Every structure is written in structure tokens, then in C-alpha cells.
Amino acid sequence: MGFRKDFLWGGATAANQCEGGYNEGGRGLANVDVVPIGEDRFPVIAGKKKMFDFDDEHFYPAKEAIDMYHHWKEDIKLFAEMGFKTYRLSLGWSRIFPQGDETEPNEEGLKFYEDIFKECKKYGIEPLVTITHFDCPMHLVEKYGAWRSRELVGFYENLCNVIFNRYKGLVKYWLTFNEINMILHAPFMGAGLYFEEGDNVEQVKYQAAHHELVASAIATKIAHEVDPENQVGCMLAAGSYYPYTPKPEDVWAGRQEERENYFFIDVQSRGEYPAYALKEMARKGIKVKMEEGDKELLKAHTVDFISFSYYSSRVATTDPELLEQTAGNIFASVKNPYLEASEWGWQIDPLGLRITMNDLYDRYQKPLFIVENGLGAVDTPDENGYVEDDYRIDYLSKHVEAMRDAVDQDGVDLLGYTTWGCIDLVSAGTGEMKKRYGFIYVDRDNQGNGTLKRSKKKSFDWYKKVIATNGEDLSN
Ligand code: BG6
């Protein structure tokens, strides 16, 4: 009983939240660079001015982030010390293709990741690579309108051809788009999409989503052709919906919300637009333009496994008063009165992870991979940078227990688990450094002050023990 022998324990990061070095090694500018900390972080959603470059009024945390660009050896060594079997990281697209539409890649960018993968292999760590984690080269945003343009599919295909060939034998596990459903909720930060006066926003989003879905199928095709060993996954921002009451309307509202998210991975996993989505699009007057061969591509190149992030369950209601009170999450959800919440209002629900895993496994019958889970919290280090983060250990142990139940009791096939932000990094949602997830503390604050020194938190040794016992010993 318990997790499989080759269970992939590890941690996850994303290029834009940890690398920094935004203008080094020939890297081009990306959408994720020009989003500042603070209330202007989502300018397009807020309908504020477009921010396609830096200005003097704002602080841009991704520019330096935690400077993993220069600290990666030290960081991987620490991951290895914890016993990581896998390390999930993402490629900076604009490091490899600075503009995005070149035919030839930037060798320095390619080499940067090759060195990282080799370093991982040195320690027996299997890289798990997200091809795009929210990022899109700014040149593609400005010249083509990012994913609203079909041309992006070709540029992404070019990127895939280059990386699958270059990293053959070094990388086996790939994710095509991080939290692909995020395009609906954070279009600029999540996919470089912005809207002009008069745009039919829904139409633009779903057309862009179609382009990503086709690109994802093409990536899966190339990955399998280049190396049959390659395993490709989709990636969903998951969290099952509970109805606020047993009122059938609330249950139905939850179903609708879930489908909005499932839509993406239904296509990636089953290979076709589901009937409910076609009906909904027709009702809303959304006409997704497909090219000849798209349907066949989607059908022929479905993903090998389903990966997802899980932070919380969500609640659906039809009560207008309750709808007013959102839980501080980008997935505006009603507060669940039975759950506690983090300092950022994210509700904590370990059983919800088991429920979500079962929902996904029942639906797809493909192996699952939990590629993000964790607690964003304020840490208070002592003079040596040591943090007694019992709250994090508590959160993680309860979630690991729930996922063990899903495996042991329910028979879910789970490939691995990578906690989010295994080393402190910049928050995607807020741009803050003080929302920390790591086992490793990084000395840097919201304004970019600090030595960038790394130090182990209490949870570092805890996770080391969890991995060493293959999830048997979760005690603090
Ligand atoms: C996921 C993203 O949505 O949640 C990560 O894939 C992100 O990039 C994580 O960092 C946690 O969110 P936040 O806003 O606390 O950083």
C-alpha cells in the first residue's frame, strides 16, 4: 500500500517567478516582466492603461526575482539534499526565442536550461518541464496580439521542435501550458492577451484558447515523434466546486463553473470539444475559427497524463448577496463557512484535494500528477534565516495524507507530487515576496531589498523525511 515505488516527489517553480536575469543571456522581454507589484498588476482586467514596458512609478519583481539565473547550482543542490526525485521548472520562452518569431534560437538560452537539466540528472532528479508558464515574448504580444493570432501556433511549434530535439534524453516529462484555464481569468498575465475598445472579449479568449489547444496537440505530437519515451501532460488550475446549499440551482451553478475549467483539459485529454461547450458557445454567439485538420490533430494527439495545481476547493451559489463576497482568490469563490483560510484568504481544504483527485480520475482515467500545492504565508526568520514554519508542515502533511487516501482507498493512479514554490519566490497573483511557499527561505523583500541568501526552514527537514519514507512518515 502507499505511493508507487517510483513516486516523483519534488517541488515546482516557474521561470518568471524565480529566474530574474530578465535582460541577460540575450533574453527578450516577456509579458510576465512588465507586470508590477500592487494594484496595477492586472492592468488589462482593471481596464487601466496598457503596460507594455517598465515605468518609474512601479516596482517590477520579475526583473531580478530570486536571481535563480545566478543561483541555480546552489538551489538544485538544496533540492537534492531534500531528496527530490523531480524538479518542476518552466522555460522562459523569450530566453530561447527572444522575440518569439525568429527561426533560429538563442544558443545562450538553450544552454542555460541544458546545464540545469544536466545538474538535475547529476543528482538523479528528473526534470518536469512546463513549456510555457504564463509567459509570452512581448514582441509577439505587440506585433501579433499574442494568442489571439493563429501565427502563435507556428511560433510555439518552432519552440517545441527545438527543445524536444535539444533536450532529448535529458527531459522526459513535459507540460504544454501552465494552468491553461487561467487564460479566462488573467488573460494578460496568463497568456499575453489584451483587449482593444470594441473587442468581443469572450470571442477573443476562446479563439486564443483554441490556438493554445491546437499548439498543445502539436507539441504532444512532436514530443512523441522525437522520443517515444516522452510523457506529455495538460495542466489545470483545479479545485472542485461544492454547492453552497443542496438547492438544485446551487448544484447546477457548481457544475457550470466546473465545466468552464474542464473544457480545456476535456479537449486535451479526450481530443474533442465537449457537447456542453459547443452549446454554450453557440448560446453566447462565440464562433471559434478552426482550420482544416484541427479536429483531427486534437483527436490524434491527446495527453498522456493529467497534471493540476490544487490550493483549495471552491463554492458555487446563486445567492446574489453571497456572490458579492469573494474569497480573495482569482477564482472568485464564495467563502466556505466550514474551512479556515490562509493569510491571503485562500481556504484550506485537504479533503477537497482527495475529492478533486477523484473527480479528475473518474472523468479521464489517466494518471494524475499534482504539480502545485502549498501554503503562501508570512514567515519570520531568526537571525540565521531559520523559520519555524509548523503551519506549512501542518498544511502539507494534511494534503499528503488526503492524496494518500485517494491512492490507497480510492485507487487513483498518481505519478507524483511537486509542492509549489519549493524555494521562496515571487507571488504570481500579487507580485509579493512576503507570500512565501518554500522549504528554503530567500532573503528578499517586496521592494527587492535583501541579500538573496538561501537558508533552510524547519519544513526542509520535514519534507526530506517524507520523501525518504515515501510518504509514510508525515509527523512533525
Ligand atoms: C498558480 C500558479 O496559480 O498558483 C503559480 O501556477 C502561482 O504561478 C501559484 O505562483 C500560487 O499563487 P500566488 O498568487 O500565491 O503566487
From TrEMBL:
Pfam families in UniProt: Glyco_hydro_1
Origin organism lineage: Bacteria, Bacillati, Bacillota, Bacilli, Lactobacillales
NCBIfam families tied to this protein: PRK09589.1, PRK09593.1, PRK09852.1
Protein name per the record: 6-phospho-beta-glucosidase
Keyword Hydrolase: yes
PANTHER family: 6-PHOSPHO-BETA-GLUCOSIDASE, GLYCOSYL HYDROLASE
Family: Belongs to the glycosyl hydrolase 1 family.
Active-site residues, record numbering mapped to chain: 372
InterPro entries assigned: GH, GH_1_N_CS, Glyco_hydro_1, Glyco_hydro_1_AS
Keywords: Glycosidase, Hydrolase
